Amino acid sequence: MESYREARTLVLDALAGQADGSAAAERALAQLERQPAEPFLLNATGVLLHGLRRGGRALVEAALRLDPALPGAAANLAAMPERFDARQEEIAARAVPAGSSTLTLCLIVRDEAELLPACLDAAAPQADELVVVDTGSTDETSAIARSYGARVLEVPWEGSFSPPRNVALAAAHGEWILFLDADEQLQGDVRPLLGRTWRELFLLPTTNLTGDGSGASVHPSLRLWRNRREYRFEGRVHERLGGLPFDLPERFELAGTGILHLGYLDRHVARRAKTERNLALLAAEAPGPYTAFNRGSEHARAGDWAQAAAWLDEALAELGPGWRQVGYGPLLAARAARARRETGRLGEARALLEEALREAPEYTDLAFELACCAVEAGERAEAAALLRRCLAQGDAPERYLGVSGTGSDLALDLLHQIGELP
Questions:
Q1: What percent of the chain has pLDDT over 70?
Q2: Could you write out the DSSP letters of every residue in 268-328?
Q3: Where do the DSSP E strands lie in 83-211?
Q4: What span, in angstroms and rounded, lies between the C-alpha atoms of 113 and 109?
Q5: pLDDT of 273 higher than 80
Q6: C-alpha to C-alpha distance for 101 and 173, rounded to whole angstroms
Q7: Which of 169, 241, 364, 411 is such that its CA lies 20 to 30 A from the CA of 422?
Q8: Do residues 370 and 328 lie in contact, with contact meaning Cβ atoms separated by under 8 Å?
Q9: Between residues 406 and 212, which one has the greater pLDDT?
Q10: Which DSSP symbol is given to 286?
């Protein structure tokens, strides 16, 4: 990936007038001859070649074939005349998705006999290899996994989720990793994604059923990525995959295939005592804004709003103005505002929400929570206007963790409660 990164940087520098265009084009063409299925580099190199009056159209056409939604590529193509170049035509002809790739399905489990079969029924047929790490089951979990052809590795639980996850990664031989939990069910086919070798990872929209199953939230979760040794998990709980190429945003894609998550249903939360377990693990985690955010989120899930407000406020204070730049910033604002409202700090909740909406106006949950504040303040007209805004926007885009219904039935129900609908 380093050679790609170097060619990419050189082309972008040349387009900005900070590097020699001819040298950058030659470097990029050489990279594309080795690895032609790179939509971003094909498009950028095509634009550079066009500026040098050396063609480029064939490369941009190839970029659009691979990624029809590639920003700017269609407009670039429309501005380019036909000009034949044998070298560029040859690169473009070979710019196709990979024909076949191998996939390893990884799970870590413990006493998951109830949920594991449904998880494996949906996902195991799509995998070439199944690696299951068992951290101490006393039920039939391991036997169930083996019945699906899994290689089961037994690893003692050491108070952190990252080590067993990394054991699974180290044992995987597939070119791609699909990592699921036993309480998750794949809702479609991921095999077509594996040919997109220009991606490093895919975010899969995950629907979290909550309560008795009538509530839900949706968010993108990292579940599918290229098998590279530098990608390893970090953290005890709410662990994150480290080593990812965040400087190459074109390597990330939000896929259409989704996941159904059952672990936040009341019956499973109670059975697992998840909140107590997670809070104990987080207490041993290194302090910092992300740890404070997670501790506050756990207390919010349990309905302990005083503790939730304290930890979420701490996360905001530690981040300072930088909360707007972190990926979980909008969600932090939404949860902190809810906690403030629940603890009677209505003015502070509204101030935070108004600030957050300036940063993320499309995040419907913020407008919905601001409507809830207006309702509590007795400001029915403002609440109604905000709820109609929610309905006009619909639920939050998939890149956010949004509560299902804030842009539909929940907003309609609240409008009815305040007498703005018959």
A1: 99
A2: HHHHHTHHHHHHHHHHTSPPSHHHHHHHHHHHHHTT-HHHHHHHHHHHHHHHGGGGGTSTT
A3: 103-109, 129-134, 151-154, 176-179, 184-186, 201-210
A4: 9
A5: no
A6: 11
A7: 364
A8: no
A9: 406
A10: P
